[in-house]
Design brief:
Length: about 450
Amino acid sequence: MSTKACLVLANGLVFEGKSFGASGCITGEAVFTTGMTGYLETLTDPSYYGQIVTQTFPLIGNYGTISPDFESAKSHLRGYIVRSWCENPSNFRCESTIDAFLKSNNIIGLYDIDTRQLTKVLRESGVMNARLIAGDSPAAQKEMAALSNPEEKQKLLKEIQAYKIEKAVESVTCNAVAIEKNADEVFKESAAYRAVPIKKDGTKLNDPDEAMKNGKGKKIVIWDFGAKANIRRELLKRGATVITMPCTATADEILAQNPDGIMLTNGPGDPADNVQIIEEIKKLCKKQLPIFGICLGHQLLALARGAKTSKLKYGHRGANQPVKHLSSGRIYISSQNHGYAVESATLPEGAVESFVNTNDNTCEGITYTDIPAFSVQFHPEASAGPLDLNFLFDDFINLINDNTYFKNFKAAYKAIDAVSYFKSTIKSHTMAHNAGSTK
């Protein structure tokens, strides 16, 4: 039976609705995601740690819960908001309802509010802290009553505003390990749903021997900052041996594994908070080992190389984010989940922007010309498009296998860098000329 619930934003706005999932009171950072599907991946993505997530698509839960699709062993959200949820899901893989999943993970859910209005508020004002209040417990009833008392409401708002996501990476590292499987099992399950490796031309590799031949005998360390399980699956599908190490691992401990390559994974929180990890990445970069960074890993690698990051107004969250590949001019559809971005203007020498977001022109990828490394802000393992960008895992395997591949990479992106520099120089000269002519 539904009970009254509400969301209290840090700016004082209150959205009243009904509760599902768990009951209680919780504070988190209110964000929105625009994916029409993939709510299971959202619910189990460690990068959402500390956040109250709003789904902009109006109906959620129509295919229930499917544990093989989980990105980690449990949910890390603080709360979950939808316009409406499906009580009777229908799918041949369905195991349970979204309501039961939220209850089992102790996640408070809120529905029957105008999620469009909430999304507009977050777009205009930016992401902000919020309080979810649900259920009939004494604590929930007390906070509900406080909302009608101006003085008590102000006290509650101050408490909400003071919330800060802390120890995010440490809280989620290696959570996906609990659902890891071996390479043969991963490929068999993936082949059943044609979720096999995809080449740069968009064709699929259904033959496991063909898909795995380049990665056979190669060892890759996943440095887990809150990794989504599908990152590991994509590496296993390409034949590599994968070792997962926690965020607390040192460069020496990683090197002791004698890896052929290192994957820096996604994860939650402010990248600049991870001071020790950044210092360890600096040490790894000196060893000239192939490195591939995704999402938070992309940001941490950039910080280690001397770039800066900053918080976006409302972030990029969803399975429909367009990015432009600068070396080819091609537009890809990507899946994203991040609230921070690398500042393009701060990229050091030897770091070249490879992808940009076509909506706001923020940095979506970097290729390094002085070390064998590249990174992307989006999630190439998430099958957006659905055939887009999966080939980046092949680029990583090729980078491990062949230094010539890296040299070609380097030459191509140095050319981009030169073109970008030429264009920016022309633009600055033109602006200076125009400014002078108006005086």
